[in-house]
């Protein structure tokens, strides 16, 4: 684990006045520990963000220089502005290099899964951090798992991770960290053909009528015309 130096100054602007520090390019912070009184401080915004943006992130081991004093600390907690995403406050925790601490380490995958590449599977990666316990000097920058040989249906748990010397995994051994799921198939609803009305059984179709049309109704025959009665001839 890398170790960096950060310069800090004791902060005079407390409470709501800490906004003044931010306007001047500083981040309000506090440093505390088991064997010391908390000290309100501030650190340079640009310098701190440049350091914290590296691979180690919040697990950086820091020599916090306050005047003539130098304290071994870690950035224990950040407050972030939800609108801008900028860090607006930091809690520094003083640590002992000889005492194990608990922290969370970034979990990442490497390689390309066979099931994803060849069979169109989906990589499900639900867990992004692993909680560990170890000496500050043994904190890993990150924990990786090579997924190259994983096929569809394969599932990886915390218990499948390779042990790291001097590091204890606190996250449950049964916790799922990777799954290769089968691709989802979109079901297409069958299109129903329009059905024309069907003639009643036994009813003959009219000649020339299109299939499926109702049969022509028979036209009633005209009644025969009555013949005019011929006048009878009388004998003279």
UniProtKB/TrEMBL annotation:
Compositional bias (Basic and acidic residues): 224-236
Origin superkingdom: Bacteria
Compositional bias segments (type: Low complexity): 202-223
One of the GO BP terms on file: translation
Large ribosomal subunit protein bL25 beta domain: residues covered: 101-183
Disordered as annotated region, ranges: 202-236
InterPro entries with a match to the protein in the record: Rbsml_bL25/Gln-tRNA_synth_N (IPR020056), Ribosomal_bL25/Gln-tRNA_synth (IPR011035), Ribosomal_bL25_b-dom (IPR020057), Ribosomal_bL25_C (IPR037121), Ribosomal_bL25_long (IPR001021), Ribosomal_L25_dom (IPR029751), Ribosomal_uL5_bac-type (IPR020930)
UniProt keyword Transmembrane present: no
Stated family: Belongs to the bacterial ribosomal protein bL25 family. CTC subfamily.
HAMAP family: Ribosomal_bL25_CTC
Protein name (Swiss-Prot/TrEMBL): Large ribosomal subunit protein bL25
Native organism: Candidatus Saganbacteria bacterium
Gene label: rplY
């Amino acid at each position: 684990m890398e170790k960096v130096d950060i310069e800090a100054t004791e902060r005079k602007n407390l409470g709501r006045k800490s906004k003044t520090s931010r306007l001047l390019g500083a981040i309000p912070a506090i440093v505390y520990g088991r064997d010391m009184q908390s000290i309100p401080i501030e650190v340079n915004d640009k310098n701190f963000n440049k350091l914290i943006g590296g691979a180690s992130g919040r697990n950086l081991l820091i020599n916090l220089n306050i005047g003539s004093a130098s304290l071994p600390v870690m950035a224990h907690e950040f407050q972030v502005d939800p609108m801008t995403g900028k860090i607006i406050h930091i809690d520094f925790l003083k640590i002992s290099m000889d005492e194990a601490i608990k922290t969370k380490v970034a979990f990442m995958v490497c390689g390309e899964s066979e099931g994803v590449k060849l069979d169109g599977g989906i990589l499900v990666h639900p867990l992004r951090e692993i909680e560990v316990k170890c000496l500050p000097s043994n904190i890993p920058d990150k924990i990786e798992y090579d997924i190259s040989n994983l096929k569809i249906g394969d599932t990886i748990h915390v218990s499948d991770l390779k042990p790291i010397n001097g590091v204890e995994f606190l996250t449950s051994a049964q916790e799922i960290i990777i799954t290769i799921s089968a691709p989802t198939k979109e079901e297409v609803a069958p299109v129903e053909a329009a059905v024309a009305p069907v003639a009643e059984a036994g009813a003959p179709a009219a000649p020339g009528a299109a299939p499926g049309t109702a049969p022509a109704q028979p036209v009633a025959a005209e009644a025969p015309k009555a013949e005019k009665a011929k006048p009878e001839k009388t004998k003279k």
